[in-house]
Design goal:
Blueprint (H helix, E strand, L loop, with lengths): L10 H7 L6 E5 L5 H11 L5 E5 L20 E10 L9 H17 L4 E3 L3 E4 L2 E13 L2 E11 L23 H17 L6 H8 L6 E6 L2 E10 L5 E5 L4 E4 L5 E2 L5
Parallel strand pairs: 1-2
Antiparallel strand pairs: 2-3, 3-7, 4-5, 5-6, 6-7, 8-9, 8-12, 9-10, 10-11
The structure holds biotin.
C-alpha cells in the first residue's frame, strides 16, 4: 500500500521534468478547481504557459456540467493554461492529444497500461481512472485553452454514485509529481505537432470502444450499434443496427459489454 506522506506534490520534481518546456508551475494545497484558477490567471494576463496543480479541489468540474470528485492527496488534479495563436480552430484535437499524453505518461511513470473510452475518458480494469476537461475562451484579443486532467491514483473511497464507475491506478511506482511532469511534457510535445494528427493512430490503438457494441442518446432518442472507426479529427463512426452509419463529433457513448 502506498504511503501518501511520501507523495506530496513537489514543485521541484515537476519543474525538473519540465526543464526543456517553458511552463510556470504553481502548486496549491486546496483550490476550487484548477481549471478555474487557470482561467483567473488568463484574465490577469500571462505571457507563458502555466501548470496549476492542487492537492485537492473543493469544486472540481467534469464534462457536461458534472463535478469531479477530488479528495486530498490521492489524485492528481492539474490544468495547463496555454495561449493559442490564430484562433480556436487551432485547438481542434487537443482533447484527443491530452488523452494520448495521459496514456503515455501513465505507462512511462506508473508502468500501467490504460485505455481510452471515446471521447477522452481513461480506463483501467473496467473503471474510469481519469477524465479530461478542455475549455477554450478569449480574453480581449487573445485566445486561450485550459486542459484540465484529473487522475485517480490511490483513491479507494468514492461517493455512492461513482462506486460502479470509478477506479484508481493503484500503481506500485511513480509519484503524482512525476506523473504531472510527464503528462505536461507529453502534452506540450503533442500540441506542437497538433496539425499533423500523427498521434491519432496511437489514440486508436488505445481505444477501448473500436469494434465494440455501444449505445448513445441523440436528440432524446437512444441508438445502438458497433463503434467502427475514429477519424483523425476525433469523430466516431457507429454502424447502427439497421446498417446506417452515424458520425458522432462529440458527446458520450456507453459500452454495452464490459470494458477492458
Ligand atoms: C470528466 O471526466 O468529465 C472530466 C474531468 C476533469 C477533471 C479535471 S481535475 C483538474 C481539472 N480541474 C477541474 O475542475 N476539472 C479538471
Amino acid at each position: 500500500m502506498h504511503n501518501f506522506d511520501f507523495d506530496r506534490l513537489d514543485v521541484k520534481i515537476i519543474s525538473e521534468r519540465l526543464a526543456s518546456v517553458p511552463v510556470d508551475v504553481c502548486v496549491f494545497s486546496e483550490i476550487d478547481s484548477t481549471n478555474n484558477e487557470a482561467k483567473r490567471r488568463a484574465l490577469d494576463g500571462v505571457d507563458k504557459p502555466v501548470l496549476i496543480i492542487s492537492e485537492k479541489q473543493s469544486a472540481g468540474r467534469g464534462r457536461m456540467g458534472r463535478s469531479f470528485y477530488s479528495p486530498e492527496g490521492t489524485g492528481l488534479y492539474m490544468s495547463l493554461l496555454l495561449s493559442v495563436d490564430g484562433g480556436f480552430q487551432n485547438t481542434v484535437g487537443i482533447t484527443s492529444a491530452a488523452a494520448v499524453a495521459a496514456v503515455r505518461a501513465i505507462r512511462n511513470v506508473c508502468g500501467v497500461e490504460t485505455g481510452i473510452k471515446w471521447v477522452n475518458d481513461i480506463y483501467f480494469e473496467n473503471k474510469k481512472i481519469a477524465g479530461i476537461l478542455a475549455e477554450s475562451f478569449s480574453v480581449g484579443e487573445r485566445f486561450f485553452t485550459v486542459i484540465g486532467i484529473g487522475v485517480n491514483m490511490y483513491t479507494t473511497e468514492f461517493p455512492e454514485e461513482l462506486y460502479e464507475i470509478a477506479g484508481s491506478i493503484m500503481a506500485k511506482k511513480g509519484s503524482r509529481s512525476e506523473l504531472a511532469g510527464a503528462i505536461t511534457e507529453e502534452l506540450v510535445k503533442l500540441i506542437y505537432g497538433l496539425p499533423n494528427r500523427d498521434f491519432m493512430s496511437e489514440y486508436r490503438d488505445s481505444s477501448i470502444v473500436l469494434g465494440k457494441a455501444v449505445t448513445f442518446i441523440e436528440n432524446g432518442q437512444s441508438f445502438s450499434g458497433i463503434a467502427e472507426s475514429i477519424s483523425d479529427d476525433g469523430a466516431l463512426t457507429v454502424v447502427l443496427e439497421n446498417g446506417d452509419k452515424h458520425v458522432l463529433k462529440s458527446g458520450e457513448i456507453s459500452l454495452r459489454v464490459k470494458q477492458r
